[in-house]
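Changelog excerpt

This revision adds worked examples to the README so contributors can see how folded entries look when concatenated. The first example is reproduced verbatim below.
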Amino acid sequence: MWSRYLLVFGGGVVLLAGMFFLNITQGEAGIGIQTLIDAFVAPQDVADHHVIRTLRLPRATMGLLAGAALAAAGTLLQTITRNPLSSTETLGINSGAFLAVNAAAVFFPAAFSSNSLIVAFIGGLAAIALVYAMAGGLTASPVRLTLAGMAVTLAIGAVSGTLQLMYEENTGRLLAWGSGSLEQTNWSGVRFAVPWIFPSALIAVALSRSLDLFELGDEMAQSLGQRVPLVRMTSLLLAVLLAAATVSVVGGIGFIGLIAPHLMRLIGIRRHLPLLISSMIWGAIVLLGADTLARMVADGSDELSAGAVTAIIGGPWMIWLAIRARKGGGHLQRSSDSSTLASRLSGRTPYPVLLMVLAVLFVVIWFLGISLGSLRLHISDILAAMAGGGDELTRNIIFNMRLPRMLVAAVAGAALAASGLLLQGIVKNPLADPSIVGVSAGAGVGALLLLIVLPHIHISWLPAAAFAGAFASAAIVYAVSRRSGMNPAILVLVGVAVSAMGSGIIQMLVIQAKIRASAALSWLAGSTYARTWEELWQLMIWPAVLLPVAWWLCRKLDLLALSDEVPTGLGVNVIRTRIWAGIIGVAIAAAAVATVGTVGFVGLIAPHAARILIGHNHRRLLPATLLIGALLLMTADLVGRLLFSPKEIPSGLVVALLGAPYFIALMRKSVARK
């Protein structure tokens, strides 16, 4: 026991000191150990000493404080939720605090400058309250809490992205900062954070005995004199306050609160007094190490965010935790609400009529998309241009600007919807979506990497790069999930972790490539802006080839929805069917991402809406899902163009603003059913 404590605390303090000083030596201009010692022992009025005292020492100190604060917050959250996957990142606290900071910077800049902590605290508290509400309250399973946190994070991210695009002048610096940056220009950030982080950490340590009792269960703790609601609320407020203080200074840095406490528990530390203290030490080590690594690999003056590095490190950690938690994870079952409603609607409305209504809506949105814009076109002008007549300006607007854009939106929306339908059929989980199970992030990494490494390469190679990234992500998800028997809940959690890793890599690539904030946000959110005929043809090839194969697989997917034993008994190879359906779903999603960026939620909403209207027959679902997906992205493109004209909101953000509440409602129905 004592040797273990000596290793954790003694070794941790020594390693922390070494990492602290190593971090100070890193930067655009390297600083030697002797210069560092001189700056502390005999400071002089020279440039290197000023850099150390005013830039690098505050940065390293802030890294120590932020790492300790996030680790303490993660420990508290994991205890009070009894959820091994809880942290300020996975429960949406960081994103809620960041949205509040964004909104205050835009709408209340004067008040924000002196009340940033209060703003971030309110945002983080509101976010975790929403997560608990949609997950089913205090009894929610780890899987459900994590998925609820992911949904809230995606929804908040869409709102934050919209604010950043609409008010770029107010929020121009928030893209890199929002991904988590320890960069400091003076001691003001440290002076701001210390009065909040230090007392909060002390109170958390003082609660150690109460937290030990809390882990025995509510009834046992109450019988021993524990005031469970008070301990839970105090711990929650402390965790949010620690996160808010951190976000206010360094932005959203994730996974520190996931890694450090579990690392200590793996070593064998269980009691909360040593657990909290050791977690804070090692949380600081992890964050300083991530920042040091980011600065070591940075090219010249390019500044990589520590948050992106921690996301890449934390993704595999979350995968491992998800596998460990599978026994108590709580499987996500198919929603019987949609099934019941589907049986009612499909019995009342004939299938051909439903398809006809969707087709008419498609034509209406298509005409509106062509006619509405900065220059409105009358329907007679559109028909004349389609017939080969009309003036040159009208033909140019229609054929070179609006028509290819709307068709790209339609095909990409249909492709993402079909991908979602196939992925949901594979995992038997209505929450599966290309963006949720890691496919979109992987495709985004592949496409963006190609654009940065080979900027002059022909556009025809972009889908190949997206395919490579998407299949790499899918392979990781499949390989890990297969060890748990393709448990749907584990598959989705692994997908969330892979998505986090992909997002971290994308953030690093965007910052390294020095892409303008607005351009980066537009692509990351998913945009159909200025799409051309060439991009349309590149996109159309893949759905045209693969969707007939998907149609052929639909009968087998119907059998997979029952159980693995039924299709096996009827001679269907379950594993082969899942692999082929997965390959098709990944491929068409990758083609869409290569063309329009990482659009989310289309693959979630469209299949679920189709099931409500039609039922669970996949051959009937596929055409309806394609039409609904096309309608969603076309409508999002139209709304994004018109809502704040002449500024445009990326269509992916519009879909996310609609899709996240839909996701929340879907989970709430599942909770209410249980």
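The second example, added in the same revision:
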Amino acid sequence: MQQVKAVLVRVTDNLPAAVQAELRDYGATVDASFPDVDSAVSHYHGPPAERRLFVTELRGPEDVLGLGRLADAFPGNPIIAISPVADAATLLAVLRAGATQIVPAPMKPVEFRDALDRVTRQYDLRPSAGRVIAVSGVTEGCGATTLALNIAAEARRLGAEQAVLIELGGRVGRLAVMLGATPRYTTADLMGDMNAVDMAGLRKAVTPVQDGLSILPGPYQSIAPAAPSLQAVHRLLTLARRLANVVVLDMTCSFDETYFGTLKAVDDVILVAEQKVPSVHGLMLVRDALVSQGVHARQYYAINRYSADLPGATLGEIRTLLPDAHLYPIRTDGRGVMEAINLGKPLREVAPDSPVLHDLGRLLEGVAGGAISGPVAPHRDGWLRRSLGKLFAQ
């Protein structure tokens, strides 16, 4: 993905400040600004290999011709036109002149954000901001929240100065209780009106739990009335990318529109399973669902609480069922993990020599770009492949 760089053309009166504020919150940068189309065509020369997002204001039918000249001068670059939409004929003329998205004037911030979000997805652009890693358990009780917490706490291995952990998807949160924290706000407090939340508001909403790590947990003192809208989640992620170098999402696997839509907006997905047969089955189901739903984020598979001595699937069998998968066993350390949970602390503060931390380090190196593969345990009898392979036609 290329980062978002914008060029403002004929954005007048009070609009420049409003547009720049929205672009800044989105993680975009303003590369140049011109008073009219002729100036932009004559004087702007962006790198040929990089796209630019043009934002222009139309005040009347005569400006549609200028929009056409702008589109002709910079082919292949998206254009957001802020324009009064009086009738269908005007709308059609603006689109045919080359506008990628139209924002009705007077401009409402929420409508500009929607247009910006659609353009960046359509043209494979991204904010110049933090990385979002979604951690999702494929079955209940597989330890995904514990892994998400410790991945966020270990995020300095990705070079992060600041990390934020956000709990999404469940009607009742666990993170605040797990850490023994009294958070300032929860996701439920924000999701009701995310359009009213800006960077300053999100900065006040998160709760620091240690140096370089803040949290925004799910509701823990009441049951959330409903799942958040996908639009609200996208707005939260846009702001969170600006707040921290690494954003870790602890996500409940809900299989709904918001779940898949959120995963389409992240950079990396870590699916958490156990070596139990139902959990491996769930992992395969979720993997196939991500493919069918068009989720293109990089995927990693964490087999939590793994032990070669326990009955269940071996790594060799799981690798056979999931060929070419980025598979990472996370060894079991029940005592250390339980002590950390009871004390309300990340694992490193309680059991710095835990094998879980060693394995998470390898996972984080893989997420950061290292080509690391886990050891393959001896293949036993292939019974798992025979049973699950029938279900998935492998």
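Reviewer comment on example two: Residues 277-292 form the longest helix (16 residues). The longest strand covers residues 298-306.
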